Amino acid sequence: MGLEYVRITTGFEDYMPKDYVDLVKYGQFGKDYDIQELGTFKELVEEHPMCAGCFMAYFIRVFYASLPKPEDTIVIGTAGCARLQLSQAAVPFIYGNYGDTNAVASGLKRALEIRFPDKVKDVVVVAGDGGLMDIGFGMTMHSWFRRERFTTIMVDNEVYGNTGGQESGMSPKGVQLKMAPKGKKFDKINAVELAKAAGCVYVARISPTNPKRLAKTIKRAIIAARHFGPTFIHAYTSCNIEYSIPTEKVLEDARNREKKDFTFYEWMSDDVKNYFEQIESNKEGQEVKV
Amino acid sequence: MPEQKVVDTDYLLLEAPRERKFITGAQAMAEAIKRANVDMAIAYPITPQSEVMHLVGDLWAQGYLKDYYRAEEEYGAFSAIAGAARGGVRVFTATSGPGLLRGLEAIASWPGHRIPAVLGVLTRVVNAPLSIQPDNIEISYLLNCGAVVLHAENQQDTFDFTLAAFAIAEQVDVYVPVAVATEGFFVTHAKGYVDLTPEDMKLPPRNPYKAPVPPTDNEIPPARIQRDAPVQKSNFMSYLIHAVWQQEVWASTTRAMKYIYKYLGGPIEVINPDAEVFVVASGCAAAQAREAVRYSQLEGLNVGLVKVKAIRPFPEKEIREVLKNAKGIVIPEHNITGWLAKEVKAAIPNNDRVVGGPRVYGGMTLPTELIMDEIYKILGVKKERKVLV
Ligand SMILES: Cc1ncc(C[n+]2csc(CCOP(=O)(O)OP(=O)(O)O)c2C)c(N)n1
Ligand code: SF4
User: Fold this and answer.
1) pLDDT, mean of residues A69-78
2) Structure pTM?
3) Is A168 in the pocket of ligand 1 (CB under 6 A)?
4) Which of A65, A188, B33, B269 is the most buried (most CB within 10 A)?
């Protein structure tokens, strides 16, 4: 929306819905809150119909609170649990067909670059493991091969949550799920290595146990995509329903996985590294033109 | 690349001077793209379509388009077309038979997303057993998508329909995709005379804000910022919203008819409106039907032609009117199921007047003699067939 479109025309404040007025007055547009201030500002997403205790819902809350420029961000989602919450945020959202996210994002990002060559418009895909690594695999990989300049965030709950708990390519080997009644026969797909091999310039794997680190990872992935190429975050967002994780144990589970196969991992190209060294040492955290 | 000036849409389509060229159907489609001020095209190879997107790629290389790429496959291509169109640019892509079917889920959702894309459909057998020849069975799969579907008879139609397709698709009261189909090889790879508009004139650019649904570009007051996604609220709401939205999509497709009248002279062409027997045909079959009508005239038989240019919206009223006194109706087609015959039968009373055929498929040519045989049968004309052994 660019800030000028978000602002309320003088005199209209009294007639706009309160929710909207609050978003503009106390929300994230044009401001840069620290994630530790969560709860003190009006958030972009405040309600969702996802299962109680769903870790993906928590991840998406932090995701929206971490957007570097929400007024100029478009989120692309697909079939799967995440879209239930993504579609309720105060950020434009596109929902196409299952697994098409990275093709839609490719077209959208290129169109925005044609029309607004001098403006920053962040395009971010947030989709499930099934969406990105199974049905949409070819489109995910090819968007990376083509070096499309947008961010892909995989919310990996290791299952097809939205359709009732079937095996996905990201389910761990041996796990018994629907459509894998004898247990999954092959290993979890190594999405992070695929992303690196396919040309992503920034790749991270994270279990969202530390909001500060999570926010920084999300910001970095989005900013790096503006200038350098595709970026990818593989986030562990457990499904407490299908994996029977009691709500109060969700964080503990995330910490356990962090100690095993979801240790924090961050990789970036030399260009991206240099760039972050430059902007992050810069006091105002101002972006520099590259 | 010559400097191109933007001219008024109506002027370019209806009044601009024309120059005659002898070119293939693929060239005719690309010549239309050259004049359509297209921002972006996305390609994926398949015979016989590839020729079209090669030529469009050359146009990009020359600077006529701003972006172009070879996609990973058709589903990816058509999904990216949706993304680009929602970003506000004018888009074009083209495919054939199996490619159309591979991308059909994306195409079927274009109208619901209000994507005013133009899609070239250069027909080809849908596989098993393999053939790459022209057979237009794929058009039947397009008919329930909500898109406008035009069927071109020859190279001239291919140029005219493709250029007009952009004007039709982007009307605020239409705003659904327009597919321009024509037969692979018979039209795409064969030359015909085409009267082209001047090379240095192009359509005005797409204005994405003149639309029933705004583009997703964050450059408008945030109508969409209200954090209430009713589709997600309950199944009841989602039924309701889907239902009313699809009603509007199909109403939009219907509203395209007035622009089909304006830019293409109407959805049908009629020769000899007082005929006793009509041949009703679309695409290449219409060219053969035209021949059959000419033969009939030479033989003193009262036979007319109804060429159907628009398959969606289907010109039910117009066809019913022309055929009201017809004794018999012959519908030759390049496919096995006879989708055009079904459409016509559903539109007219006393539809036992319809002879569903002759039909050729697998990519065969459609001999005029087969059409004549059906005409003779209806009129009770006995003909000696000379069989050369
Ligand atoms: C073409 C198509 N095939 C299948 C489906 C059914 N479907 C909807 S969501 C889904 C699974 C979602 O799993 P994932 O992408 O991992 O996301 P999650 O729900 O687990 O977050 C499937 C198979 C569909 N909507 N479209
Ligand atoms: S099914 Fe699993 S991933 Fe989906 S909302 Fe429920 S807990 Fe979350």
Assistant:
1) 95
2) 0.96
3) yes
4) B33
Q: Which atom of ligand 2 is the closest one to the Cα of A239?
A: 2
With the most atoms of ligand 1 within 8 angstroms of its CB, the residue from A129, A160, A188, A240 to mutate is A160
A135 in a structural domain: yes
Mutate to test the pocket of ligand 2, among A55, A157, A237, A249 (most ligand atoms within 8 A of CB): A157
pLDDT tens profile A218-234: 999 999 999 999 999 99
Per-residue model confidence as pLDDT tens digits over A157-188: 999 999 999 999 999 999 999 999 999 999 99
Q: How large is the ipTM? A: 0.96
Cβ A54 under 6 angstroms from ligand 2: yes
B227·A88 Cβ contact <8 A = yes
Structural domains in chain B? Answer: 5-202 (3.40.50.970), 268-379 (3.40.50.920)
Helices (H), chain A: 2-6, 18-26, 55-66, 82-86, 101-115, 129, 137-145, 191-198, 211-227, 250-259, 270-281
Hey, is the C-beta of A172 within 8 angstroms of any chain B C-beta?
no
Which DSSP letter does residue B11 get? I
The CATH number linked to A23 is: 3.40.50.970
Round to whole Å and give the CA distance between B337 and B273: 28
